[in-house]
């Protein structure tokens, strides 16, 4: 027997109940101040607790939501928890998280002006604001893509396209030059593009300089289509000497891409702004709002100095798309390796429009100050030492005498006891650990307690 094919889409009493349930849950979760850290469960345990959730006739919204709330969500680490200090955390503002629901509810298509002009207008205002913060010309523009990996790839594809159109293919393979401490997504982009990466050692400080890059450009000449400068390395939050790398553009022909997925947000604070000198000469750059710009997953702002170069590299052509591609209006799909897109810049837009830029500057400044304060505390403590002085909000340190196993056991215990999520990392073959601080709710006392736990 078939059922009414429109029953999932019509508005009925059941639908109202379902929507209320989901909104109630969302309201509780967004406003909760005591969401635990939670932790992953083995698949066998999830199978035991949740069982088989997909069936021919469904389990009903109430049960499905209960499974999510009581089994699945607690098996996901709370990435916006103030003691989530691993990798690069996320810490969306309440406004941004709440508005994410609005974006879904509004069924906005963010790919073209024709379909989503209002959303595109708002996203472009945010992109223009970012461009002006970074010193790019008012003609700069781009698009919000899924994440930094896709942002770096899309920028580098545009860079190669530009080089190819200017100078044709090189005799050998195309080359990207970047720091040995650049993010793994640069190597990933190179694999996808089937080009080579030449890495340059940034030396002890971790700061790549123009002097270190010059020999690579001199050696590989016209094969180099892009140099990637990192504005806030993932492991250390170190900013390359972008100005001296950009100065090489006067001697060599290359596209300067700045990967600021995590760190470029630091430029909003007067405390860190001078570190980013030179970014205004970038041909393209990225910064991820889902990192230090307090937006929910997933959003990367990709900006081109000359957006036309992004458009030429990425516009998809097809008969059914002629209406869009022959139009003169701004269509975000044209600026990266994607077509259909969620208007993922809107949660950030709503929060920024609501609170204003000054609130963002204050929140970023707070992370910088807290990182400095805890770094000083680590410096003072016997048995601890900083691997490098922090430049932004990542603090990397060693507990003297600890082996890799000691860090692993300690980290697992912290999570098991629901005290913090702090994972081991390493540098130059030595294990260490790090605080990646960007949640304004993280306190100095939180961090001190974690240090104390290494002395238990
Ligand atoms: C400097 C840098 N670039 C790129 C990325 C990749 O970004 P995503 O994880 O959004 O793909 C990261 C992620 O941490 C990063 O720190």
Automatic annotation (TrEMBL):
Cofactor(s) this protein cannot do without: pyridoxal 5'-phosphate
GO biological process, one term: carboxylic acid metabolic process
InterPro entries: Aromatic_deC, PyrdxlP-dep_de-COase, PyrdxlP-dep_Trfase, PyrdxlP-dep_Trfase_major, PyrdxlP-dep_Trfase_small, Pyridoxal-P_BS
Pfam families assigned: Pyridoxal_deC (PF00282)
Sample GO molecular function, one term: aromatic-L-amino-acid decarboxylase activity
Alphabetized UniProt keyword annotations: Decarboxylase, Lyase, Pyridoxal phosphate
Domain of life: Bacteria
The keyword Lyase belongs to this UniProt entry's keyword annotation: yes
Positions of post-translational N6-(pyridoxal phosphate)lysine modification: 291
Family (UniProt): Belongs to the group II decarboxylase family.
Protein name: Glutamate/tyrosine decarboxylase-like PLP-dependent enzyme
Organism (species): Leifsonia shinshuensis
């Amino acid at each position: 027997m078939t059922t009414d094919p429109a029953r999932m889409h019509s508005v009925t009493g059941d639908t109202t109940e379902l929507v209320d349930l989901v909104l109630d849950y969302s309201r509780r979760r967004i406003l909760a101040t005591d969401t635990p850290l939670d932790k992953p469960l083995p698949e066998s345990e999830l199978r035991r607790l949740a069982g088989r959730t997909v069936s021919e006739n469904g389990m009903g919204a109430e049960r499905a939501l209960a499974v999510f709330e009581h089994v699945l969500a607690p098996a996901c680490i709370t990435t916006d928890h103030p003691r989530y200090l691993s990798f690069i955390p996320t810490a969306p503002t309440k406004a941004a998280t709440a508005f994410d629901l609005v974006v879904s509810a509004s069924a906005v298509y963010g790919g073209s002006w024709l379909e989503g002009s209002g959303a595109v207008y708002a996203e472009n205002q945010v992109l223009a604001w970012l461009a002006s913060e970074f010193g790019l010309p008012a003609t700069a523009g781009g698009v919000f893509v899924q994440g930094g990996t896709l942002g770096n790839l899309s920028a580098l594809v545009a860079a190669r396209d530009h080089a190819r159109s200017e100078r044709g293919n090189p005799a050998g393979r195309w080359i990207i030059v970047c720091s040995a401490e650049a993010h793994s997504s640069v190597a990933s982009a190179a694999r996808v593009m089937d080009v080579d990466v030449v890495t340059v050692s940034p030396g002890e400080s971790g700061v790549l300089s123009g002097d270190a890059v010059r020999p690579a450009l001199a050696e590989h000449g016209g094969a180099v289509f892009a140099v990637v400068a990192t504005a806030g390395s993932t492991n250390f939050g170190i900013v390359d000497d972008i100005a001296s790398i950009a100065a090489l553009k006067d001697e060599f022909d290359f596209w300067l891409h700045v990967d600021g997925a995590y760190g470029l947000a630091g430029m909003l604070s007067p405390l860190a702004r001078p570190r980013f000198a030179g970014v205004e000469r970038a041909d393209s750059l990225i910064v991820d709002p889902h990192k230090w710009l307090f937006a929910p997953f997933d959003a990367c702002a990709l900006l081109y100095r000359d957006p036309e170069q992004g458009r030429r590299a990425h516009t998809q052509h097809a008969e059914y798309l002629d209406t869009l591609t022959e139009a003169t209006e701004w269509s975000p799909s044209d600026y990266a390796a994607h077509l259909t897109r969620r208007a993922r810049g809107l949660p950030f837009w709503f929060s920024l429009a609501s609170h204003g830029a000054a609130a963002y500057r204050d929140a970023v400044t707070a992370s910088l100050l807290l990182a400095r304060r805890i770094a000083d505390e680590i410096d003072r403590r016997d048995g601890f030492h900083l691997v490098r002085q922090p430049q932004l909000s990542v603090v990397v340190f060693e507990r003297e005498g600890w082996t890799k196993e000691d860090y692993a056991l300690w980290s697992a215990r912290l999570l098991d006891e629901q005290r913090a999520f702090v994972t081991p990392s390493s540098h130059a073959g030595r294990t260490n650990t790090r605080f990646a601080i960007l949640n304004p709710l993280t306190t100095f006392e939180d961090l001190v307690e974690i240090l104390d736990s290494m002395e238990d």
